[in-house]
Amino acid sequence: MRILTCKPGHTLQIDLPQRQPDDLPARHLFEQGPIEIFIGHVREHEIKIAISCDPRMTVTQQPEGR
C-alpha cells in the first residue's frame, strides 16, 4: 500500500512498470483484487490517500503544472 499526501492540482497515475511482458493479460493484475483507493485525512489544502494495487503496478505523483 502506498500512502500519499496530495494538494489541489496534483495528479496520481497508476501504471505498469515498463519492463512487463507485452502479453501480460490484464486479468493477472487483478488476481489479488481490484485497485483500492482510500481517502483518509482531509485538510483545507491537503488530502491523504492510500492506494492498494498489485505490486507490479507503479503509483506516481506529479505536482501541479507538470
Give the topology, please.
Elements: E1 2-6, E2 11-15, E3 36-43, E4 46-52, E5 58-62
Antiparallel strand pairs: 1-4, 2-5, 3-4
Category from helices, strands and their pairing: mainly beta
Helical segment tally? 0
Order of the strands making up the biggest sheet: 1-4-3
Strand content: over 45%
- Rounded Rg: 14 Å
CATH class, please? Mainly Beta
CATH topology descriptor: Immunoglobulin-like
The separation of the N and C termini measures: 24 Å
**Total number of domains:** 1
Q: Number of DSSP strands? A: 5
Query: What is the typical, i.e. mean, pLDDT?
Result: 81
| Quaternary structure of the protein | single chain
Uncertain residue segments: none
Order of helices and strands: EEEEE
Q: What can be said about the biggest beta sheet?
A: 3 strands, antiparallel
Shape: elongated
> Helical percent range?
under 10%
Describe it.
The chain is built from no helices and five strands. The protein is mainly β. It has one domain (2-62): Immunoglobulin-like. The mean pLDDT is 81.
Give a concise summary.
0% of the residues lie in helices and 45% in strands. The protein has strands spanning 2-6, 11-15, 36-43, 46-52, 58-62. The chain is elongated.
List keywords for this structure.
66 residues; 45% strand; Immunoglobulin-like; 5 strands; mainly beta
